Structures are given as structure tokens and as C-alpha cells.
Amino acid sequence: MSLLRYEDRPVDIRPGETVLEALLRAGIDAPHSCRAGNCQSCMHRAIDGAPPPESQSGLADAQRAMGYFLPCICRPTTPLTILRPDDLNASLEAIVRAIDPLSEDIIRLRVEADGFAYRPGQFIELSAGEDLRRHYSLASHPEEDPFLEMHIRLHQDGRMSRHLAETLQPGDKVHVAGPSGSCFYEGVNVDQPMLLIGAGTGLAPIYGVLRDALHKGHRGPIRLYHGARSRKGLYLSDELRALSDARDNFNYRPCAFDPSAPHGGDVAATALEAERNIADAAIFLCGGENLVKRLKRELFMRGASLKNIRSDVFTLSG
Amino acid sequence: MSNLYERLGGEAAVNAAVELFYRKVLADGRIARFFDGVDMDQQIAKQKSFLTMAFGGPNNYTGADMRNAHKRLVAQGLNDSHVDAVIENLNYTLRDLGVGEKEVKEVAAIANSVRNDVLNK
Ligand SMILES: Cc1cc2nc3c(=O)[nH]c(=O)nc-3n(C[C@H](O)[C@H](O)[C@H](O)COP(=O)(O)OP(=O)(O)OC[C@H]3O[C@@H](n4cnc5c(N)ncnc54)[C@H](O)[C@@H]3O)c2cc1C
Ligand code: HEM
Ligand code: FES
Fold this sequence. Notes:
The structure holds two protein chains of two kinds. Chain A is an alpha/beta fold.
């Protein structure tokens, strides 16, 4: 039996050979460049078996936890099944449990998917028909909730979001695949300061990460900034306020666009003004591309390590 | 006498230098634009490749690889002045880390040695 499986087929690997060499020899067009474990262009993910630790050197903690590794420096000694980095696990059937409004244009979708393993803050691919697939982040907690929870903005003429809000009923079936993404708590030190910034439904993964941090007894200070176009978009604010009143180490800072507010209520500017000391913080950024890119760059330039910054960009696929 | 890469401290030295170097590059108006548009996490991995190579460490890059990696940039106007700027930032980074002048010069010389490939000359 071969030590290596690529997707669903065995690949011959010789003693001392790297996974990259074996893939190329098998005629698989695996991307690569430096062949020395530095450029990360060859990255793959192990879904079965543990890649040798040295083949994960230089990767972020979150990536290691998900089984990512570098084939060009991986000489496996135990069986390994690997996928290309963006390939998802097989999709599962899920049953819609509830669809409720969270604000004027945001709904909360809860679906039950038996045996779907994930970390709060990761995202899934939700499909509701042949060619209707979109990514949504998970605000639920696998040990606290018997469902997957998503926060979904209703886009004007948005195919999926309108379908979910207008057609779908409790009891209906959908499919979920994944999970993907590295916005999750695992890998954060319990005493590390945490900086969480989400805009719009970017609060969903942030909320998942927050819940997991509290669930795991996080002791360091946690500061959460939520940005919205208007006050009505600051959903979950009652829950977050109550939490921040109840806990010494959690601070909630809602920001809605408002010409009279400091920085016009812009969440990025507000957070950047307040957060001066972020060199050791674990940082989570979720929302639109401009916001995430701007914050990531600014925070990095101010001394945050890229390894400590996890982000998801909510690209619209429409 | 151990080789340059070992004298500098190997992979740990690359790790210590990479974010410092990348910050300097992004703050340098002469060259920052070449690094825009590429995802920062991917970019930092490429910077690690660059530093490993310049430190004389293990890599398998060929001249053709260097030509390919920078072809897109040459089309955007990459020239000798930009290579000079990158090497300058590299020198500052090493000095910040307390690397001796002898090693700083050796690193600069290795980076400089691929100039023609980088510029697709
Ligand atoms: C990693 C990731 C995580 C995500 N997590 C979330 C999440 O937690 N919550 C969330 O709400 N979203 C999330 N998204 C975004 C989500 O995947 C969808 O893109 C979003 O819900 C829009 O899907 P839709 O089918 O409703 O709209 P689409 O039909 O895809 O339309 C998108 C936008 O384009 C406009 N549009 C459509 N057709 C046209 C046209 N012909 N011309 C001009 N404009 C047009 C629509 O009005 C709409 O504003 C995430 C995305 C990614 C990549
Ligand atoms: C001085 C000599 C130089 C060396 C030794 C060098 C080395 C490298 C290496 C090893 C890579 C990674 C290639 C890969 O694995 O894909 C790379 C990529 C890159 N280099 Fe250089 N480089 C040099 C000069 C420059 C200069 C002057 C610039 C721009 C000002 C530059 C900009 C880039 C960019 C943007 C990439 C990423 C390309 C991409 O991913 O598309 N480099 N370089
Ligand atoms: S090819 Fe560069 S890390 Fe594997």
C-alpha cells in the first residue's frame, strides 16, 4: 500500500522522496516554485494522517491545525491523504431549522448538519440548488449549539440571500461543504490580547471566535469593534453590551456611520485610533475587501505580526 | 569556516528579518507599488524565499525562475534603481538586526548577482 493518497487515488512515493516529487512523477500538475519550503506555493492539505512537523514549518498555527503542509519538504513516514488547498471535503445534507430577522436587512439562518465538524468563525459553502452556492461564516459553537448559525445580509437582487429569506422554510434541505478558513480561536494564547474587527455580517465569524474564546476561558483582554452603515445594522448589540457589562476582559465598541460621530463612525478609523499597542495581539478581521486590506496593512505596519492576523474577505460572487 | 547562511543564523535569522524587511519595503515609496495587489500572506512567503536566497541558504531557484518571477514587474517598469532600493532596504534590515558589515556586504553581493535575471536583461 502506498503511503500517499491524492484526492481519491493512491500515488506511488519512493523512500526519501518528497510528496512534491511523487506528485510530479505521477503526472499531477502540482504548483511549486522554490522547492525548499519557503515560498508556500506548493501548499496542500492533509485530510487524513499527520504531516511531519518539519513540513509545516513557517505556516501559521491556524494552518497547521487544519493540516496544511508543504509537499516540497514533506517526506512522509506514515500514511497521508492530501487535497489541493482549496478543495473541500464532501458536502453534507443539512436541514433548515430557523430563519429569523436580525435587522432590517440581515437574517439569521440555522441549519442542522449531523456530524459536521468545524471551528467557530470558519466558513462553509452553502448550496441551495445546482448552481446556487455561496460562502457563509459560522457564528455558532459546535459544543454549545445543535445547529450551524449564519448571519446573512439580504442583497438587492441577491440570488442566494433572497432565496433564503423569501423561499426557504424550516424543514427544507440544503447542502453544506467545508469548513474552510483560518478565522478561529485555536492557536491563540489564553493571556494574549485579542482584537476583533468586523463590518456588517463580518460580525458572524467574529462572534463565533468570541464565543469560542470565552468558552475556552480566555483571560487576556478582548476588544471587539463592529461597523455598520447605520445604527440599525448593529445587530446583536444587546447581547454584546450585556456581555461587555458582565465581563471585565471584554469590551464592545459599535460603530455606525454618522457624520457627527468621531471619525464619522468609520470602524477602521475608530479602531486604528484606539489600538496603538497591538504588537502581541491576536487579530481577527472580517468584512469587505477594502476594509480588511486597509486594516491588515495598517496593523502590520504598526508592528503586528502577519502570523497573528487572521482575516476573511467577504467577496461577493454574484 | 561555516557558510554565510549558518553564520547569519539560518532559518531563525530569515524569520527575524522577514517582517522587518517587508515593512521597510512597503514604506518605501520607490518600490512599494510593485508589492501592491499581491496578498500579504503570500507576499511574505515570497519575501522569505528572497531572504533565504540572499543569505546564501538552501534554495533551488534557477536564473529562469528569477526571470519568470519578475517578468510581470519588468513589464510594469522594474529597473536598476528598484533593485538598488531593494538591496538598500535589505542592508538597513540587517543592520537593525545587528549583523556585521562583512556579512551585510556578502548578502548584498548575492542579491546583486541575480540583478540581470531579475531585470530580464
Ligand atoms: C469567505 C467568505 C465568507 C462569507 N461570509 C458571509 C457571511 O457570513 N454573511 C454574509 O452575508 N455574506 C458572506 N459572504 C458573502 C456571500 O458568500 C455572498 O456573496 C453574498 O451573500 C451575496 O450572495 P447573493 O446570492 O445573495 O447575491 P448575488 O446574487 O451573488 O449578488 C451579489 C451582489 O451583486 C449584485 N448583482 C447581482 N447581479 C448583478 C448584475 N447583473 N449587475 C450588477 N450587480 C449585480 C447584487 O445586487 C448583490 O448586491 C462571504 C463570502 C466569502 C467569500
Ligand atoms: C535583488 C535581487 C532580487 C532577488 C534575489 C529576488 C528574489 C525573489 C524571489 C526568490 C522571489 C520568489 C519567487 C517565487 O518563488 O515565486 C521573488 C518574488 C518577487 N519579487 Fe523579487 N528579487 C529581487 C529583486 C526584486 C525587486 C527589485 C523587486 C521590486 C521592487 C522584487 C519584487 C518581487 C515581487 C513583487 C515578487 C512576487 C512576485 C509574485 O508573486 O508574482 N524583487 N523575488
Ligand atoms: S515549492 Fe516553495 S514551499 Fe514548496
